[in-house]
Design a protein that fits this description.
Strand order of the largest sheet: 1-2
Helix content: over 70%
Order of helices and strands: HHHHEEH
Shape: rod-shaped
Mean pLDDT: 85
Structural class: mainly alpha
Largest sheet: 2 strands, antiparallel
Oligomer: single chain
Length: 123
């Protein structure tokens, strides 16, 4: 069997170098501009999206539970901005069987601040 001219001698070397260069260039362009990601990056994005979606549902429930608690708003307003997550954790232990962690308490405190600002703007 006779090989084509492109696969013989110097042409063969150049052909294989072209294939290798094309593969490397395709991967570099794909990861840089094509939106390709590694498995770990995809996992991180999935976890972030899942957490964000869960927070968008649970934060309004947390705000409602917190504002319904006796004395919670007064203590929240009296507390400094850096320790409000602790006040939220004190009054709301869990929302829809989701326990209160720092990021959830922080998101809930931000929601409560927004709710207080809306109430103040209405009056």
């Amino acid at each position: 069997m006779k090989l084509p001219a492109i696969l013989q001698g110097e042409a063969r070397t150049r052909f294989l170098q072209g294939i290798a260069f094309g593969a490397v260039a395709t991967m570099a362009i794909g990861f840089a501009w094509g939106g390709w990601v590694t498995g770990e990056s995809a996992r991180v994005m999935r976890v972030s999206a899942e957490t964000s979606g869960r927070m968008s549902v649970l934060v309004p429930l947390c705000v409602a539970q917190f504002t319904a608690a006796d004395g919670a708003l007064a203590k929240f307003k009296a507390t400094g901005p850096y320790s409000r997550e602790n006040v939220v954790s004190e009054f709301v232990k869990s929302v829809a069987s989701t326990s209160m962690d720092y990021s959830f308490a922080k998101a809930c405190a931000t929601g409560i601040e927004t709710e207080i600002a809306k109430t103040a703007a209405k009056t």
